Amino acid sequence: MPARTLLAPIPLPVLRPGPRHRVNPLIPSAASRSGNDPIFALNAEAQRRAAAGESVVNATLGALMDDDGRLSILPSVVEALAQVPAQKAAAYAPIAGSPPFLQAVVADVFGDGPLAAQTVAAATPGGSGALTLAITNFLEPGQALLTTDFYWGPYHTMATHTGRAVETFPMFAANGGFDVAAFDAALQRQVERQGRALVFLNSPCHNPTGYSLDADEWRAVAASVRRCGERAPVTLLIDLAYARFAAAQVDWVELVQPVLDTATLLVAWSASKSFAQYGARVGAVLATHRDPEQRQRIQAAFSFACRGTWSNCNHLGQLAITGLLADPAQRARADLDRARLIALLDERVTAWNREAQKAGLRYPRYEGGFFVTVFCDDAEAAAARAREDGVFVVPVRGDGRSALRVALCSTSVAAVPRVVAALQRAVG
């Protein structure tokens, strides 16, 4: 008997478009979402025009570039990554992160001070993962986090994607400093309405404005959080993404300690900027609380959320960064490499302040960091006018005012005068 084919081809019906096939299979909340981050979209347009031969200054993307337009790297980090044994790197990392990595990150933030012993941590895919864990573990669905009116757009993306929201308060007072009174009033309102609060503060070197809180502003923030923590659960998250590039290092750790009398302190830590490893996706969330039982609950919640969201994080990156943080020789080399990048960025900051002040541009105090923001009446229109001059910046909006975010991290020092001139024309 001839052999019989067990899986004979079965003719498939021809599907013609009909009412059933035009029904959107997505859930309603996902059906109308934008597929691309607006910053990445502007970056792509700038790259297209540059590839076509146009002279372009691309001041959109938050990655530190050398003055020749190449991505800046730390050779010590590349070396550390290459030295990790292949079999160790290929193995799964523990769900909450490698313990030596987490210990090294806690020491990086708090040193050997008293807060280190009161802190638990979990590894995350970059600082973004830390923010996501904060949102999903310290807010109920339908509630809102509180942050400044100028803020990094993905805060909103992460919040809405997880069924939460973002509420803001005016970041700047009439004198140009941080609006402590507006913050305190907004926090009190939120505690009264929600019965809890989660605050995101990105300082030093705030994205998008470049502003860094001074010592008095930190004290006032801590006092407000402490007061509100007496009424309801309040959590203060410090987003440290750009902290390594701050010109004047204020001891925020010492200044915010009073919040722990009544509230929880979180830190979003990232290797993306501080070690120039954006693609490695190495980060961590730190949680500081005075009560050991509460720390255990927070640690368990983080581990559960890690498993339910991304399972575990980049093991190669954790192993390499652990050495760069904990080994004195490796850390010294990384600090030396980073110092070169800080000096590169500081040149641009100095050039910007000189040229922008001469041009009369309105912007917050700017002492260091990847970004600065220029206030204007109509950010979308101003950004479009700047693009006509071949200068790409990102329009951003606050509560009742708008601005243009300039990524000096990706702008050569020689291009700063051109950027300032284009913005002077654009904002009128």
Task: Compose a concise summary of this entry.
This protein is of the alpha/beta class and 428 residues long. The chain is built from 16 helices and 12 strands. The protein folds into 2 domains: 38-74 and 331-427, Aspartate Aminotransferase, domain 1 (Alpha-Beta Complex); 76-327, 3-Layer(aba) Sandwich (Aspartate Aminotransferase, domain 2).
Largest sheet: 5 strands, mixed
The amount of helix comes to: 40-55%
Kindly report the CATH topology of the largest domain: Aspartate Aminotransferase, domain 2
Cα shape: globular
Chain-averaged pLDDT: 93
Describe this structure in words.
The chain has 428 residues and is α/β, with parallel strands linked by helices. The chain folds into two domains: 38-74 and 331-427, Aspartate Aminotransferase, domain 1, CATH 3.90.1150.10; 76-327, 3-Layer(aba) Sandwich (Aspartate Aminotransferase, domain 2), CATH 3.40.640.10. The chain has 16 helices and twelve strands. A five-stranded mixed sheet has the order 2-8-7-6-5, with helices on both faces. Helix 5 (99-110) crosses helix 13 (315-326). The longest helix is centred in the last third of the chain and has 32 residues, at 328-359. Mean pLDDT is 93; it is low at 1-8.
List keywords for this structure.
428 residues, three-stranded antiparallel beta sheet, five-stranded mixed beta sheet, disordered N terminus, Aspartate Aminotransferase, domain 1, single chain, 16 helices
